[in-house]
Amino acid sequence: MLRTHPRKFALHQILTRSSPPLSWGGPGVPHFNRFVAGVALRERMPAFERMLWRACRGNVFLRQAEIETPLEDINSGDPVYKSVFIIFFQGDQLKTRVMKICEGKKLSSVV
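Structure for V-type proton ATPase subunit a, as requested:
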C-alpha cells in the first residue's frame, strides 16, 4: 500500500468528493472554521439556499441531504419529509447572518 502525505490526501478528498475544504493551512485554501447544522422541510430548502447565497454573497458552503423516511409533525402528527443541512462559514458577521436567516425561515438549527 502506498503512503501519501496527509495534505495530498486531504486535497484529493476535496477535489473528488466536493466536500468543504479542510483547515490544514495550505496557501490559497480557504479555512471554514465554523458551521451550523439543522433540519428543514424539503419544500423550504430551495428558497433557503437562495436567500443564504444572496445574503452572504457566496461566502458560505452549504451541503444538504434528504431524509428518506418521513418524520412525524409535532403539532398535527402527519408525516413530513425533511432535509438535513450543514453550512460552513468563516467569521462572526457571517454567523450572525446565517443564524438570522435560520430563525427567519423557522428552521431547526444547531450551532
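DSSP finds three helices and six strands in the chain.
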